[in-house]
Amino acid sequence: MRRVDLRHLKGEFLSALGQQIKASEAGEVVIFLFEIGDFGSVKAALNLAYNLNCEIMNSLKFNQVDWAITIKKGKI
Q1: CB atoms < 10 A from the CB of 57, how many?
Q2: How many domains in the chain?
Q3: Which pLDDT does position 76 carry in this prediction?
Q4: What is the pTM of this model?
Q5: What is the extent of the structural domain holding 15?
Q6: Domain at 52, CATH number
Q7: Which residues, in sequence order, are CB contacts of 72 under 8 Å at separation 6+?
Q8: What span, in angstroms and rounded, lies between the C-alpha atoms of 56 and 53?
């Protein structure tokens, strides 16, 4: 399991999220942290992970501006 902090990218984190997911091994669990801005970014992140064959294991707001999603990359 590893953790990837994308909060420094603010609202421009989706492409980095996609790159990190694609670089992950099948079956790997990854926790992604990002700044939400609005809840549309949460939905976009979850849709991206789902479309890249990942299981969404957890999704939670852990302070006023940050969100964490935990995904498990599926087998190819």
Answers
A1: 12
A2: 1
A3: 65
A4: 0.93
A5: 2-73
A6: 3.30.110.40
A7: 27, 28, 29, 54, 55, 57
A8: 10
- Average pLDDT of the chain is 94
CB atoms within 10 A of CB 71: 27
What string of H, E and C letters represents the secondary structure of the chain? CEEEECHHHHHHCHHHHHHHHHHCCCCCEEEEEEECCCHHHHHHHHHHHHHCCEEEEEEEECCCCEEEEEEEECCC
> Residues 12-41: pLDDT tens digits?
999 999 999 999 999 999 999 999 878 899
For 15-43, b/e burial (b = at least 16 CB within 10 A) is eebeebbeebeeeeebebbbbbeeeebbe
Answer whether residue 43 shows pLDDT above 90. yes
Quote the pLDDT of residue 37: 79
Round to whole Å and give the CA distance between 48 and 65.
20
